Amino acid sequence: MRSGSSWSLARRILALQAVVLFVVLAGLLAAVLVDSDAETERATGERVASIAAAVASSPDVVDAVTAPQPAGAEISGPSAVMQPYAESVRTSTATDFIVIMTPEGVRYTHPDPTQIGGTYLGNRAAALAGGVGIETYTGTLGPSVRAIVPVEQDGTVVALVSVGVTVDHINELTNRRLLYLGLIALGALAVGVAGSLIIARWVRRQTLGMGPKELARLFTYYDSVLASVHEGMVLLDAKGTITSINAEGRRLLGLGDAAIGRTPAEAGLPAHLAAMIVDPESLTDELVLSAERVLVITRRPVEVRGTVVGAVVTLRDHTELDALTGELDRVQVFSEALRAQAHESANRMHAVISLIELGETDHALSFAVEEMQTAQRLADRVLEGVGNPAMAALLLAKSAQGAERGIDVTVRAGSYLPPHAAPDPELVTIVGNLLDNGFDVLTTVAPTDGPRSIKVGLDVLGATIPGAEGVGGGPPRPDPPGRRRRCRPARAVRADHRDRHRPRADPRPGPVGVQPGLVDQVGQGAGR
């Protein structure tokens, strides 16, 4: 799914982060530049003021400006003493000029000796008043930041000292600092772009290279599919946590919005159902009994580049179909039993007709009456012994069916199943399937020429077949410890009665054809 735009979400994030990072760094550099100029001028003013104060307080300077000088040497005399001192201090302090002057502004010292004796260019009022003056002024060396302080003796201003740094020198220092800041900013930009690339690649992997429109369209389709499918759908992440569930899934499982973000077990599902939903293996049309329904579950893992990132579980309501299948099974059981009884009745009727044709009317009458009485006594004895009418009817029908196939069906002594001990339809289905399995074993899987019989034992806990005589088998082997027996697919339940006369590989009789959940339902009914 690709849109017309070649800009994926990852590229958009990378471009946005790069632009934001560049703008932030440029703004920081501009702010540092503006603040650096003002801060540098302020710091330079304070520095030259402290240097000027130190020079003004030097005893050599005080002595030189107050010592008597011969006529005509009022400037040259002190200058000869102070010029070397001033230049030495200027060099050591990295300033551009140190000018010592008279209160009237006549220079004693200057970096340019030709300017000695000239008039100082700048404000002297603050210094003459005994204070410190700091200003930016254009003098003989160009614009400079300078400070001027008084040289006092006994409270009288006897000279002035001015120390300054040219603006060009200040700008040179500022540019050097900006170069360092620029290099730091470029390094930060490089690190930021590298981090953005890493994030962009991660986003690209997570979004499969799709752009915002593609993601929005995909989410719309995804939401529409979840809402429109008639099957329940549950989406899980790699940890088995429910990330989404559609309306049909909520209805079938009895869950609400609170289930999102929880595992199936934490959401309150039965343990066997929760285990099947989070089972890492693929499942196809597995039958499972929930609290109120028979569900068919299909589970498929979701893989991205070979890594399992979650699973999709679909649910179908099999309750009504299961009930219809069970009803069909019961009808088929009785239909086959009636067919067997009809076959026996036809044989007996032929015998009666033949006796009548032979003139043995009395014999024919006694034979018919005896057969009817025998059948009625058998029905009464079975009903009295078993107790449950539906089960008695099933056993009579299966007895006739077994007799047709040469198998005796007997009820174990002491068997009794009270009426309404369990739901009749489920009992008929379970016991009927068990007897059919026994017939299959004795006639198809392991046939024998000797006597063949099946003994049925009934009590309030259900029905059992202790053994099928005539074969070397017995009851089904129990599952090994730790092995979980799974429900058979729905198609197997419907196929059992149609295919039960085909040979089976396992010679031991097993409960084939019993719908999952019926045994649980019978157990619940017996416990009431």
UniProtKB/TrEMBL annotation:
Any one Gene Ontology cellular component term annotated for this protein: plasma membrane
A Pfam entry, by short name: sCache_3_2
GO molecular function, one term: ATP binding
SUPFAM superfamilies: PYP-like sensor domain (PAS domain), Sensory domain-like, Sporulation response regulatory protein Spo0B
Annotated region described as Disordered, given as residue ranges: 465-528
Transmembrane segments: 178-203
Entry keyword annotation includes rRNA-binding: no
Coiled coil (residue ranges): none
Membrane topology type: Multi-pass membrane protein
Protein name: Signal transduction histidine kinase regulating citrate/malate metabolism
Main subcellular location of this protein, as a coarse class: membrane
Keywords: ATP-binding, Cell membrane, Kinase, Membrane, Nucleotide-binding, Phosphoprotein, Transferase, Transmembrane, Transmembrane helix, Two-component regulatory system
Subcellular location: Cell membrane
Domain PAS: 220-285
